[in-house]
Write a structure and sequence with these properties.
This is Rap-GAP domain-containing protein. InterPro entries: Rap/Ran-GAP_sf (IPR035974), Rap/Ran_GAP_dom (IPR000331), Tuberin-type_domain (IPR018515), Tuberin/Ral-act_asu (IPR027107), Tuberin_N (IPR024584). One of its GO terms (cellular component) is TSC1-TSC2 complex. The chain is mainly alpha-helical and 1243 residues long. Among the domains are: 67 residues, no CATH class; 124 residues, no CATH class; 166 residues, no CATH class; 118 residues, no CATH class; 75 residues, no CATH class. The protein has 50 helices and twelve strands. Strand 1 and strand 2 form a beta hairpin. Helix 35 packs parallel to helix 37. The longest helix is centred in the last third of the chain and has 26 residues. The N terminus and C terminus are likely disordered.
């Protein structure tokens, strides 16, 4: 046979012939030539492939192939044996096991393949599993499996041991997964069919562990092998060896990590299959101990595998076993394995520690396993015992980052029940720190979890004598650390609430730090977009501002509210706290433009509510009565409404009530029109939505908590003047009110935020009435007066944006209100400053429509308090009033001012006759205007009233409706009618008129539409007054002590109430049908129980009082004290007397419901009736009746003859307030104006 001859085929020969050929050629297997050996092997392979061989022939062939061969011939031998055994179907060619034949082929064939693989790898050729050699290697393993499982003869233990050893060599050397897979198949066959020799069992388990750990793609086959091994007779030995692998694990990396990992993975499979048939039992304690030793490797992959074992222990049937044991070590194993996510930043920097650092993938796997373990423990929580729950609690406290909110809640509630953070409990300090860092300060937790943790800490903190210990340990400092970086408003509210309680009991150093921290601006507010319209410097009037974007809540406001609570509580009952420090911090917040608007408003709300009693003790009031000014600044009129008004409208416009305030808005033309004449501007104006300041609407809950009604016992606005009183009391804390006044001045001058500026305007006047609060702030008060006067004079105050709906005149109303309160400080002002104040009020008459009423009332107070300054400017004041007298809404106030002036001769002492006539001219101008209105009301063609101003503003409080105006309700009409008659009554009671009778009478007579001279009934009565002086003291006859006149008899229209009760007086306190007006007098400050009673008239003169007129519903507010006024005790009687007289006059007019006829008008009518009867009796006489007429300005003169018409006088026009009568006289009407002769003449 040639060396390179092709393989010989024996298909043409019979079986016997083929065997004969083999017998002849069998020597080739042992030939020296390699080619000969190869040819012999090929021949053997061909012959073995025949299916018609006898058993003896097959035995002979098997004997031949059992001879040793070179590695290059092993693939051929393998194919030959596979063919001879017909793939395991006919393994009857040997009486012994065939393993001794095939086992020696394993390692040589593998080495040959390994060499070829290495060469191909160097050449860059990919691995090819389809080569004849690779296929033969796989066939060899399958042949071994067939031999082990199908051959009847069991292999000897030595043969199995040899097989395993060869397989171990392959498994430990190969890098091809297919080799491992084939080996696993052999292992499984050995385990399933025969017994693994004891000498090889440990090595087999070692290899299985390595495969399980290193080749995850073969996890399924490996697990099947392991499970079969666990179900074998050697299961106990297997479990013991696995424990040994873990318990003997060295700390260093000497032992193969894969063995340890594999052992852990096998335990995972065993735990997962626990309870299944044939699976071994596992000791819980021994398993935990083994896993604990495995953690010594400090390898992330091993830790991940251990956590997976622990997870399986909490699931399936093994959970019942685990619940029977203590979980302390179990939790310790979990915590040790999770160390990379619990402490992600190792403290040491040596080489070993750096090598122990795992990749992010390992950490994510550990975190995922911890999350699953926590979920399993949560599901098992109801079945856990008390100690087990404590162990789980410790675990949850450590792995807090992987907990869900529900799991964290379970842990925290158990922590609360067990009171593990309370002083005296074991390890309360580390537990408290874990609670602090892992839950309270962990901003990645939900607010609910953090709040629950904070509640637990608060419970521990509030136990007896615990607060100081917690503070000393630094827990409060930890709460304050990075406080400004907090982002959760919900949690911050709870934290600040707790810090408030801490502040009330901590030492001075901690208190200062706490206050400083609460004052910090939160960083979250710095990056938050401010959607408040007040932050926009100019807002286009063509766009409306949605109310939802008015102001977003800020975190700084939460902190500020905490400061407010501390301040409120520090006033009463907390001697260790310095409220002055908190007061200054609140001022810093209020004046800082960098702070969020709502935080500044919260500070302003408490600052403007600070008051002091008569002894200087500080307290805070819950609400402030500034409704009038609030309504002025809270305009929300929609100009698209039919009832809306604009500045450029004509005078025939109908008045309209403000939807917010219920008052009329009288706007000055000089403030500039909101709507332009151009069509485009008009269309833009129709889209405008006016917005109120953001603080409107929440004033009922302005403070975070209700302040105590009692004043502070150690915080004062000023020190007592008596040194004895100072020495008897504990040291007092003075509130730096002067600093607050300086802040108010700065806000008035430089504030650009409309919400802040409007709030100061609305509440400043109310606080200034508390006069004693500013006793130590006189320089600042003087500066405030100067600033207010300067802003009015130069119109330098802030002009509101168009989208606010507020006009410049409305701002002036608020400034004048504050300036009016400053009149009470006039004794501290120089004469020039008093003069300037009066001139400033004078500017308010006519400059802005809205300010006239308030300025007239302020001047009425100045007439009493600063009479010299009023006298100096009186002529200019009267000139201003004369120019606005025709404005019906302020006419009553002007006349009331003149009535007051008439009773103060020292004020008008410098007026000349022509100037006095100016006063009467004002009154007469009103009569003329009122008369014109009545005529127009009776004229069916007069459909509009031209007497009202062109712009309505929040400055007018009374309803300015005219009698007979369309659309007016019956109540409004009656009120207007009463007001008209009242004002008409006031007109005839102004100043001394003895030298001006003729001048006055000429102007009381007017010519009607028929050309006749007419004089009204009231005018006739007034003329009679001017010539008579009536005095009576009958009411004093029965009251020698002058006390009965003060008694309430039940039918008084006006009650003067002196209120020193420190409480509000209800209007119906004295409830009668005649209650119309209460004039309430109360001290400017709450009466202190320590106040020294007033014993001398000088002390009374130096005290100050608040006078306020409270009317029943439906009454217009006419009095200068409709808005509270501050009056000195020296001028109190005169001021209240005038208010009461005028209120009584209007009440008398209003109480009748219809036409009011005074006693003097009734007297006139009776005289007329008497005259008519006398005239009728003499009608039949042939002689003409001659009446005696007296010259009106002389009392006892000779009568003149006047011819009286035969027909009775025609009935003239009737006024709204009384009967009128026309006198038709051929000659001068003055000849009929002395009514006294009709009653005094004799027949």
């Amino acid at each position: 046979m040639k060396p390179n001859a092709p393989p010989v085929t024996c298909t043409s020969f019979g079986a016997d012939q083929a065997i004969a050929i083999w017998d002849a050629a069998s020597y080739l297997l042992d030939h020296a030539s390699a080619d000969a050996r190869k040819a012999g092997s090929n021949l053997l392979e061909t012959i073995c492939g025949r299916q018609d061989l006898s058993l003896s022939a097959r035995r002979d062939l098997y004997t031949s192939m059992s001879r040793p061969c070179s590695p290059d011939l092993i693939p051929s031998r393998v194919r030959a044996l596979v063919a001879l055994a017909d793939h395991g179907r006919k393994i009857d060619f040997s009486d012994d096991s065939a393993l001794p034949t095939v086992v020696p082929w394993i390692v040589p064939l593998y080495d040959s393949l390994a060499s070829t693989r290495a060469k191909n790898k160097k050449l860059g050729k990919p691995y090819n599993s389809s080569t004849p050699e690779e296929a033969a290697f796989g066939d060899l393993f399958q042949l071994i499996v067939d031999i082990v499982t199908l051959q009847r003869q069991s292999p000897a233990a030595a043969d199995v041991e040899s097989l395993l050893e060869n397989l171990f060599v392959v498994c430990k050397s190969t890098h091809v997964t297919g080799d491992i897979k084939h080996s696993l198949a052999v292992f499984d066959a050995i385990i399933s069919s025969i017994t693994v020799p004891s000498s090889s069992f440990s090595a087999l388990l070692d290899v299985l562990c390595s495969i399980h750990a290193s080749i995850k793609s073969l996890a399924g086959p490996t697990s099947r092998v392991v499970r079969n091994l666990a179900k074998s007779k050697s299961q106990k030995e297997m479990v013991g060896l696995l424990h040994a692998f873990l318990l003997e694990t060295p700390v260093g990396p000497d032992r193969n990590l894969n063995v340890t990992r594999g052992a852990v993975d096998i335990f995972r499979d065993l735990v997962a299959g626990y309870g299944q048939e044939g699976m071994p039992s596992l000791s819980f304690d021994l398993l935990i101990s083994s896993l604990q030793h495995a953690t010594n490797k400090n390898d992330g992959r091993i830790d991940t595998d251990i956590l997976e074992v622990c997870l399986n222990m909490l699931q399936g049937d093994y959970l019942d076993v685990a619940l029977q044991y203590n979980w302390t070590n179990f939790v310790l194993v979990i915590l040790t394995s999770a160390r990379r996510v619990i402490n992600p930043r190792p403290q040491s920097t040596d080489t070993a520690s750096s090598k122990a650092n795992t990749s992010d993938d390992v950490k994510s796997n550990i975190s995922a396993h911890i999350t699953r373990i926590a979920s399993s423990m949560e599901a098992t929580w109801p079945r856990l015992g008390g100690n087990q729950k404590i162990d789980v609690l410790h675990l949850f406290m450590k792995v807090h980052m992987q907990l869900t909110p529900s799991q964290a809640e379970l842990a925290l509630r158990l922590l609360s029940v067990q009171k593990l953070c309370h002083i005296g409990c074991t390890d309360w300090i580390p537990t408290s720190w874990e609670l602090m860092h892992n839950f309270i300060l962990a901003r990645d937790k939900t607010p609910e979890v953090r709040i629950l943790a904070l509640d637990i800490y608060k419970d521990a903190y509030r136990t007896e004598d615990a607060s100081s210990i917690f503070d000393a340990e630094g827990f409060t400092d930890a709460l304050l650390h990075n406080f400004e970086e907090e982002t959760s408003a919900t949690f911050l509210r709870e934290l600040v609430s707790f810090l408030v309680t801490v502040a009330l009991s901590c030492d001075e150093q901690l208190f200062k730090r706490l206050i400083d921290v609460l004052t910090l601006q939160m960083k979250a507010d710095e990056i938050k977009e401010d959607l408040s319209p007040t932050s926009v410097s100019s807002h286009p009037v063509s766009h409306s501002i949605p109310l939802t974007n008015v102001l977003l809540p800020s975190l700084s406001n939460v902190s500020c509210l905490g400061l407010v609570r501390i301040f409120l509580r520090s006033l009463v009952g907390h001697p260790s706290i310095n409220p002055s420090l908190v007061f200054e911090k609140l001022i810093d917040i209020a004046r800082s433009p960098q702070r969020p608007c709502d935080a500044r408003l919260s500070a302003l709300k408490v600052l403007f509510r600070i008051r002091c009693d008569s002894a200087g003790a500080i307290y805070v009031i819950p609400t402030v009565d500034s409704s009038f000014l609030i309504n002025v600044l809270s305009r929300t009129i929609d100009v698209t409404s039919r009832q809306s008004v604009t500045e450029d409208s004509s005078s025939d416009r109908k008045p309209r009530n403000d939807s917010q305030s219920g008052r009329l808005s009288l706007k000055e033309p000089s403030s500039g029109p909101l709507v332009s004449d151009t069509p485009r501007a008009a269309s833009e104006s129709r889209a405008v939505k006016w917005n109120s300041p953001v603080w409107i609407g929440d004033e009922s809950n302005s403070l975070p908590e209700e302040p105590l009604d009692d004043p502070s016992d150690r915080t004062f606005a000023f020190l007592p003047s008596s040194t004895d009183e100072q020495s008897e009391q504990s040291p007092r804390i003075l509130l730096p009110v002067n600093f607050w006044v300086e802040t108010v001045i700065a806000l008035l001058q430089r504030e650009k935020n409309w919400d802040i500026y409007s709030y100061v305007l609305a509440y400043l006047a109310a606080q200034l009435m508390n006069r004693e609060l500013f006793r130590n702030s006189m320089p600042q008060i003087k500066l405030l007066r100067s600033v207010l006067c300067e802003q009015i004079k130069n119109e330098s105050f802030q002009e509101p944006h168009g989208w606010t709906g507020v006009k410049k005149g409305d701002i002036a109303v608020c400034i004048f209100a504050a300036l009016t309160r400053l009149i009470g400080f006039h004794q501290h002002f120089a004469k020039s400053e008093q003069d300037e104040t009066v001139r400033t009020f004078m500017l308010g008459i006519g400059s802005w429509e809205a300010t006239a009423r308030g300025c007239i009332h302020a001047l009425a107070v100045c007439c009493h308090e600063t009479p010299l300054s009023v006298t100096k400017s009186l002529h200019a004041i009267l000139d201003k009033m004369s120019k606005v007298m025709t404005r019906m809404h302020i006419a009553a106030h002007i006349l009331e001012f003149l009535a007051l002036l008439a009773r103060l001769p020292d004020v008008y002492v410098n007026l000349r006759d022509e100037e006095i006539r100016t006063v009467f001219g004002i009154c007469l101008r009103y009569i003329e205007s009122s008369r014109e209105q009545r005529y127009k009301a009776m004229d069916p063609l007069a459909t509009r009233s031209a007497s009202l101003p062109t712009r309505l503003s929040g400055g007018a409080k009374e309803t300015a409706s005219t009698p007979g105006a369309s659309g007016a309700s019956a109540v409004d009409a009656n009120t207007s009618d009463d007001l008209s008659r009242y004002v008409y009554h006031l007109t005839y009671h102004v100043m001394d008129r003895s030298n001006h009778i003729s001048w006055i009478i000429k102007r009381l007579v007017f010519t009607d539409e028929a050309g006749k001279e007419v004089i009204e009934e009231q005018s006739q009565v007034f003329m009679d007054f001017m010539q008579r002086v009536v005095f009576s003291d009958l009411d004093l006859a029965a009251d020698p002590y002058c006390v009965k006149k003060k008694m309430h008899i039940g039918n008084d229209f006006v009650n003067i109430i002196f209120n020193r009760s420190n409480k509000e007086v209800a209007f119906d306190t004295i409830l009668t049908q005649f209650n119309f007006v209460n004039v309430v007098i109360s001290p400017v400050c709450r009466v202190s129980p320590k106040e020294v009673p007033i014993h001398s008239i000088e002390d009374f003169y130096q005290s100050f009082y608040i006078v306020k007129v409270v009317s029943k519903p439906g009454f217009p507010e006419l009095s200068p004290a409709a808005m509270p006024k501050v009056i000195s005790g020296k001028n109190l009687a005169a001021f209240v007397r005038l208010i009461a007289l005028n209120a009584s006059a209007f009440s008398l007019v209003s109480s009748r419901g219809g036409e009011h006829v005074s006693s003097w008008q009734n007297r006139l009518r009776e005289i007329r009736r008497l005259r008519d009867r006398a005239f009728d009796a003499s009608v039949g006489s042939s002689d003409a009746t001659v009446e005696t007429v007296y010259v009106p300005h002389r009392r006892h003169t000779k009568a003149a003859a006047v011819q009286v018409e035969e027909t009775p006088p025609a009935q003239g026009l009737r006024a709204n307030f009384g009967a009128e009568r026309n006198l038709y006289i051929d000659n001068n009407v003055f000849q009929n104006l002395d009514f006294s002769r009709w009653s005094n003449s004799r027949p």
